[in-house]
Amino acid sequence: MSQTTASQVRAEDPVASIERALRRAAAEVLNLEAGSIDPHVRPAQNPQFGDFQANLAMPLAKQAGLKPRDLAQQLVDAAADDLAAVVEPPEVAGPGFINLRLKPDVLAAAVESIDNNRLGIEPDPQASPIAIDLCGVNVAKQMHVGHLRSTIIGDGLARVFERRGRTVLRQNHLGDWGLPIAMVLHQLRAAGVDLDRLELTDLDRAYRDAQLAGKADSKGLEAADRLHAGPHRVAELEAQNASAAEAMEAARMTLVKLQQGDPELVADWQKLIDCTMRAVEEMLELLNVHMTAEHNRGESFYRDRLADVVDAFVREGISEEDEGALVVRFDDRDRPLLIRKSDGGFLYATTDLAAVRYRTQELGASRVIYVVDARQRDHFRDVFDAARRIGWDVTPDGTPVELVHVPFGAVLGTDKRPLKTRSGENVTLMSLLNEAVERGTSEVKRRAADPEAPTHDMTADELDAIGRAVGIGAVKYADMSNDLVRDYVFDMDRMIAFEGNTGPYIQYAHARINSIFQRGGIDPAALADGPLMMTEPAEKQLALALLRYGATIEQVASTLEPHRLCSYLYELANTYSAFYQQCPVLKAEREDVRMSRLRLCDLTRRVIADGLDLLGIDAPPRM
RNA sequence: GUCCGUGUAGCUCAAUUGGAUAGAGCGUCGGCCUCCGAAGCCGAAGGUUGCAGGUUCGAGUCCUGCCACGGACGCCA
After folding, report:
1. Distance A43 CA to B15 C1' (A)
2. Which CATH number covers residue A69?
3. pLDDT digits (tens, 9 = 90+) for A235-280
């Protein structure tokens, strides 16, 4: 094995060099396979411990029955030659931590190597596409906060994969088929509504009316019986029941005709979808989400595949009949998965299985991600296990498929209960976003009113655009900046606040960097490639933070946790602020220092803008 | 009843997947603008990580049992 040369070190990430050296040393000392060793190299918890720490000695010592500290020292000795090119002499501390400090020229070279349009993000070598199930709006229903989460989290993850070079297939699994839609369709036709002039509010009203008309008050009837209610009340409820049954029957007829492909009904049904999608697309545009009607793969898309899906399960002997229904049973749980009703109809599990098959077998996706409400956890567990049993967890070319549900929690009001209006109705997404835009705009304008503010000379239109970016960014950031599975409280005051881990704070950091270039009359794109110098601690901390961007993105891609990107951006913005406080840029006393700092500023600016873009958040140059 | 989540500072949340003294923001208290955007920075106070055991060099993280809250549980989606 040859020793690592200086040019090799410059060509790659110093962490990779360190890992390789330690892996090789561990293989030598313990007589292990180098490939099987995880060197556990992490950024140091505390600057006093250096820049990085390697935590491999403790677990390996346990395995080999050695003292961790002794092993750590042996590893350091064995890796000394390889490490010498990259770090200062390592120190062994505590129970066996190996503390590492990068050599200044190596740090500079590392920053240099990410100063390009990749910013340290390594391409994902996998060629197969990733399918993401997101949004999932219901036709004829107003979008609400649940759709907001699915949509922006799904889009954020999609952007991360795309940034790493993967092909992403966004799948909007619309609720556009089945009895509820038939009920609305029947309701609209019975009321003689002109479907060519349909508005979303008409649809929404029809949906509610249809639900109401179809709701058989059987519970009320039982209660009346139990409480010995008078005959008058019972008769009233029975009448209500009868008319409800009638409405349901009419809706069922409509559904049957729709399913049989009745041309007139299908044409009308399409009008409902078009109307819904017009509103949805408007919302998606406001949200800066990369999705249009071409990504629609609603329930109706699978309607002709359902029978074959069920046949496949019957054919393979994976399903069994139970009380007339067809179910799939699992060894480790009591509940079965119903895939066909006793009347021969299909269920949502059938549609989901059809979607799994389509995505893996027809589209060839090797990773299928469902960004759906946490309440559907059990459902997806069952569906995925059923899909695995029948072999849809391998693409036709033999690539194993990862089926994964990304569950997210509920959006609560300040009363800690699911978000509702004062009158008890679901809060519509539109009203929520309107509030966000309004708040963002008023905050931006309030600050622009100050004659000293850099935005003071801007037009009302320009300020509106910034306010929109700030308001929408605040909502999206708040939604993605904590662990997805937890419920969170929708508190506009907190999310629009320009301090703490919020969207506006990150946007502010970006705008402030930008203003250095504006004030200095410097075009960042035309910066000379002068040497980078990290002599001040704040410069060094900023450089180290910048170097973590690539690994952060990789981590988000593997864990499917966007809040890690938010935390990273917050830390970077924080580290930059400390740098900004301590290190004059335009006013630096030496020209070479000024150039070096300008390059650090520019790189920070680009990383923040890139990170925000991956979250689908705009980074206004001024705000 | 069965299964699945969640529980960390007064409040809202982190914790690099088992690593060093559990970290941020808000709020409270105290510093820093004749100086590149103070929407900022620096510092202080604030903790039995729901409770009780266990595993080991080492536990917020893993195991067992409780407690609290939420959710899902056959022909809705």
Report:
1. 14
2. 3.30.1360.70
3. 555 655 667 777 788 888 898 899 889 999 999 999 999 999 999 9
In a domain, A562, yes or no: no
Q: Which residue has the tokens 């399903």?
A: A319
Residue range of the domain that includes A247: 179-260
- What is the ipTM metric for this complex? 0.96
Whether A566 sits with its Cβ under 7 A from any strand B atom: the answer reads no
In chain A, % helix, strand, coil (3-state, to 5) comes to 55, 10, 30
Domain count, chain A: 2
Protein residue at shortest CA distance from C1' of B19: A55
For residues A441 and A468, is the Cβ–Cβ distance under 8 A?
Answer: yes
* pLDDT at residue A540 tops 90: yes
**One-letter amino acid identity for A428?**
T
Contacts of A59 (CB under 8 A, 6+ apart): A40
Q: What local confidence, expressed as pLDDT, does residue A218 receive? A: 46
Nearest nucleotide to A575 by CA–C1' distance? B41
In strand B, the nucleotides that come within 7 Å of a protein beta carbon are 2-7, 12-21, 24-26, 35-42, 56-58, 70-77
Query: At which of A102, A123, A138 does a domain end?
Result: A102
CA distance A362 to A395: 8
Q: Residues 6 or more apart from A369 whose CB is under 8 A from it?
A: A130, A131, A132, A133, A154, A157, A404, A405, A406, A560
Residue A5: pLDDT over 50: no
- Is residue A492 within 8 A of residue A458, CB to CB? The reply is no
Closest nucleotide C1' to the C-alpha of A343: B75
Alpha carbon distance A412, A418 (integer Å): 4
- Cβ burial, residue A362 (10 Å; 0-12/13-18/19+): exposed
